[in-house]
Every structure is written in structure tokens, then in C-alpha cells.
Amino acid sequence: MQTQTAVEVTGLVKRYGAKAAVDGLDLTIARGSITAVLGPNGAGKTTTIETCEGYRRPDAGTVRVLGLDPVADAARLRPRIGVMLQAGGVYAGARAVEMLRHTAKLYAEPLEVDPLVERLGLGSCGRTPYRRLSGGQQQRLGLAMAVVGRPELVFLDEPTAGLDPQARRATWELVRELHRDGVTVVVTTHHMDEAEQLADTVAIVDRGRVIARGTPAELCRSGAESTLRFDGPPGLDLDSLRGVLPDGASVTEPSPGTYRIEAPVDPGLLAAVTAWCAAAGVMPDGLAVQRRSLEDVFLDLTGRELR
Ligand SMILES: Nc1ncnc2c1ncn2[C@@H]1O[C@H](COP(=O)(O)OP(=O)(O)OP(=O)(O)O)[C@@H](O)[C@H]1O
Fold this sequence. Notes:
Elements: E1 5-16, E2 19-30, E3 34-38, H1 45-52, E4 60-65, H2 74-77, E5 81-84, H3 96-105, H4 113-119, H5 135-147, E6 153-157, H6 165-180, E7 184-188, H7 192-198, E8 201-206, E9 209-214, H8 216-221, E10 226-231, H9 238-243, E11 250-255, E12 258-263, H10 267-280, E13 285-290, H11 294-302
The structure holds adenosine-5'-triphosphate (ATP).
Family: Belongs to the ABC transporter superfamily. Drug exporter-1 (DrugE1) (TC 3.A.1.105) family.
Protein name: ABC-type xenobiotic transporter
GO biological process, one term: response to antibiotic
């Protein structure tokens, strides 16, 4: 019987010298999901993914992928997963599409190569050596190689880094199609919009651990504040407005006539603001709730400092 879990990482530790790149990381990925793994540079995302792929051995903890041990059961696991590495992983002199055809032959029921080549815009690169492809073409070939074997599970490490908008969209479309076919997709990315558009689950990794996990909507709702904003006459009495709001609400006028209220936004807050406006004879133009974006959540959780 197949379990509903595609990837189960428990207490994963991976050290390089004295430094723990991954430091007790737990992550469960459901079959058929698209999971985006986000995190600052050096957070341990690639190390975790490469451990799941069997390229690195854990120092502690366990990793199970499709119920198998990625190192001990590598021979059984490899034909069932697709891997797109951050740095190519392709012999530099290999001709692009020949390489893809060769890869396809290693699998029992590969996708048809020509349509895949066309849809990823690689039609003109047939005999071009890998090292002569542009960065974006190398990325797209890497994606094609990861999916051509019709895997049950694909790991995509920053698949759209450096891609033009058209290629990004083609990549997203391919990922959605994989999802519709029941493939489990694990994708690392620094593009918050990509995670919001594609993923049903987001895991935020920081300092070698998962520090938050949920749907994009759950993460954006979680925790604190949202913002209420409106336009009105400049110079309203902010202290008076603050006086009718719950403790801890912040009221600012970032530019003349634009007002921001940071507080947990609920119907009571809206009623208090509109009642205050009515009493003051102020029309709150464009009154709107601004939810936190995934990027706001990410920065709140991982900090704004460069590391
Ligand atoms: N082979 C290695 N030898 C020594 N240190 C390493 C090695 N591989 C990774 N590291 C270190 O482990 C930490 C985690 O790296 P990792 O590549 O997993 O981060 P990441 O979250 O994928 O970052 P990025 O977003 O920049 O790709 C970093 O500090 C990195 O320098």
C-alpha cells in the first residue's frame, strides 16, 4: 500500500566541519502536493534537498523518500524521482537535445522528447553543446531532464532563477501539469510570487530548521497585524483616532492625507475607524485592508539583515 507521504525528514542534521548546515530539520511532504521550500541564502535548503535525493548522507536523523532510504535504496529510488540541480549536473560538452534523448531512454515510460523540447523553447538548441547554451537554456534543459522520465516526485532547485518572464511562465505551466498528473513537486525558490502562485504548501527554512509551514494563505494570516489604509484630508488628529482603537494599534500618516493603521483587522476595528471618521466628518476614501504578503511574512520570520 502506498503511504500518503512522499517525503519524511525527521531530525536531519548535516555538518560541514564545525558548522551545521542543517540542524534538526523536520519536514513532511504529502503525495501529490506542490511544496515550496523558502529560506535565506545559506539556510540549508539545497543541503536538505540533496540529502533527499541521495547525494548527501545525513549525519543524524532520518530521511525517507517514497518510503525508501535515498542512500541505501538509491537504485530503487532513482528511477522514480526527477532531479533538477542548481548547478546543471550535465557534462559540459554534451549536445543539449541528444543528452535529453539519452536520459529519456533510461526510463521505462518517458515523455515524448520533441514536444517537451518545443514547449521549453529548446528547439533551436538541438546540437548545441551544453556549455554554449545560455544560462536560461541550461535551466530549461535541466528542467526537461528532471521530468522526462515521468517521475512520481520531482525536486526542482531554483528552477526559474535567471529565466525570462516567458520561460518562467512555461516552467510554471509545466509544474502545474505535473501536479495535475499526480506528481509530487518540491521546489526551492527565492521568488515569493512563485511560491504563492504554485505551491499548496510552503515551508520556510532558516538556520537549518523549518521555522514555519502552511498554505500561503495560512502563513499570510498567521501571527500579527494587517494594515488598514485610507485617504482623507491631511493633518487628521492621529492621537484622537488612536484613542478609539485597541491597545497596541499604530496610526501613522506616511504622506499627507494617507493614513495607515496597523492592528489585527476585524469587523470591530473597521467599525471603530468608520465611526471615528463619521464623527469627525471625514470620508475615508479608498478604505482597504492590506493583507501581509508572503514576502512580509518571510522577512518578519527571517529578519531583514543580510547574512
Ligand atoms: N560542501 C560543502 N562544504 C562546506 N560547506 C557547505 C557545503 N555545502 C553547503 N555548505 C554550507 O552549508 C550552508 C547551507 O548551504 P545550502 O546550499 O544548503 O543553503 P541554501 O539554503 O540552499 O542557500 P541558497 O539559497 O544560497 O542556495 C551554507 O552556509 C553553505 O556555505
